[in-house]
Design a protein that fits this description.
Blueprint lengths: L2 H8 L12 E5 L2 E4 L4 E4 L2 H4 L8 H13 L12 H12 L7 E5 L2 H16 L3 E5 L8 H5 L4 H5 L8 E4 L14 E7 L12 H14 L2 E5 L23 E4 L10 E5 L1 H4 L18 H16 L6 H11 L7 E4 L4 E4 L3 H14 L1 E2 L2 E2 L2 E7 L7 H18 L1
Parallel strand pairs: 3-13, 5-6, 5-7, 7-8, 8-9
Antiparallel strand pairs: 1-2, 2-3, 4-10, 9-10, 11-12, 12-15, 14-15
Bound molecules: pyridoxal-5'-phosphate.
């Protein structure tokens, strides 16, 4: 059997039509398949490879740390310098109230940790989330997922959860003194890039403060520069009580984090002791990789050009087949007439050497979330291909 057949036989599948491209190398903006075909990556492993594939600084940091030490002991016992250095660097770039980092292996685990922390800290149980939000596939994270179709397939899930309409002022009335936390994406990604009104996020912040509810902002997909500022919440003039990070956090390696105030995080240390445990969260090699990626992001000033790059996409992406384009920074949804049309456009692009896909709750929208290093020529090339596909198939 060839690799593709073995893949279909032995690797668990989540759809009956996986892409099944066999990638043998990836670097910067590009991937190469087993036949040597070059593929422009327009989605960065779904908002992961912000500094590009296999950035040399990240690769070097992994090699150096692997030679020093890899796994030592479960989370939170030993002083491991890569963990300490990365937590310190992250908190130096965050508001003073977000000064304590709990590293996890994934975004979903960051969501789980934050929900547990909110329950413990507030002594309350109700959790509120929003329709069309995606926070991960573990059972807790899935309980707050904003789609009944997925939730219903896995019931019973966590009790005492409400889903509200995102960006609706009326919905805020449902947040009360019973609510432990509200979990919201600062910008909804899988809904097809839904940017909330600034006033709405500010009203949400105010309602949480008034009711003693913790505001948990999920920036797992939109954080770390993708929206044009280091943290998306900066653009809305609010500060969350707990910030969730993941995806690009590990520089291409698996990592998440929930970040809160030191005093709040302290509730995980007693009654019971070891209130949230992980064997591998904050792994030294991953922390070294994440720190190297974070430094590239800052030192190469990759974020300051994000908005100009977004504008280029918006300028080029004009065609009658494109119904709307929604964006914040390099998180862009290109809305087509239907999933059927979008799928044809996507398949055309992939066939011609450019990887893109659609959004979980907006299958009619084509996803643009490239590495932030994408240059003007590549943006033009990507848009030309989308337009060519639209002309050919739509
Ligand atoms: C906004 C958001 N939150 C949470 C997650 C879950 O992260 P992970 O897949 O690392 O568990 C995702 C993943 O796509 C996401 O987009």
């Amino acid at each position: 059997m060839n690799n593709r057949q073995l893949f279909l036989r032995h690797v668990a599948q989540l759809s009956d039509a996986p892409l099944g491209l066999e990638i043998v190398k990836a670097s910067g903006m590009y991937m190469w398949d087993a036949d040597g075909k070059q593929i422009l990556d327009l989605i960065a492993g779904i908002s992961v490879c912000n500094v590009g594939h296999s950035h040399p600084a990240v690769v070097q940091a992994i090699k150096d740390q692997a030679e020093q030490y890899m796994h030592l002991l479960v989370y939170g016992e030993l002083v491991q310098s890569p963990q300490v250095a990365f937590a310190t660097l992250l908190t130096q770039h965050l508001p003073a109230s977000l000064d304590c980092v709990y590293f996890t292996n994934s975004g979903s685990e960051a969501v789980e940790g934050a929900m547990k922390l909110a329950k413990r800290y507030t002594g309350k149980t109700e959790i509120i989330a929003f329709n069309n939000s995606y926070h991960g596939s573990t059972q807790g994270a899935m309980s707050i997922m904003g789609d009944e179709g997925w939730r219903n397939a896995y019931r019973p899930l966590l009790p005492d959860i409400q889903h509200l309409e995102y960006n609706s002022f009326e919905s805020l009335d449902s947040i009360t003194s019973r609510t432990a936390c509200v979990v919201a994406e600062t910008v909804q990604a899988e809904a097809g890039v839904r940017v909330p009104q600034k006033e709405w996020l500010q009203a949400l912040r105010a309602k949480c403060t008034a009711t003693g509810t913790l505001l948990v902002l999920d920036e797992i997909q939109c954080g770390l520069g993708r929206n044009g500022t280091l943290w998306a919440f900066e653009q809305f003039g609010i500060i969350p009580d707990i910030l969730l990070l993941g995806k690009a956090l590990g520089g291409g390696m698996p990592m998440g984090a929930f970040i809160a105030n030191r005093e709040m995080m302290w509730v995980l240390t007693n009654n019971p002791v070891l209130g949230h445990m992980t064997t591998f969260g904050g792994h030294p090699v991953i922390c070294a990789a994440g720190m190297a990626g974070f430094k590239v992001l800052l030192e190469q000033d990759l974020i300051s050009s994000v908005k100009a790059k977004e504008q280029l996409f918006l300028k080029y992406l004009q065609h009658p087949a494109i119904r709307a384009v929604r964006s914040l920074g390099l998180m862009i949804a290109v809305e087509m007439e239907s999933f059927a049309v979008n799928k044809k456009v996507i398949d055309y692009c992939i066939d011609k050497g450019m990887l893109t896909d659609w959004f979980l709750f907006a299958p009619e929208c084509l996803r643009i979330a490239p590495p932030l290093i994408i240059n003007e020529e590549e943006i033009k090339q990507a848009c030309d291909m989308i337009l060519e596909a639209a002309r050919t198939v739509a």
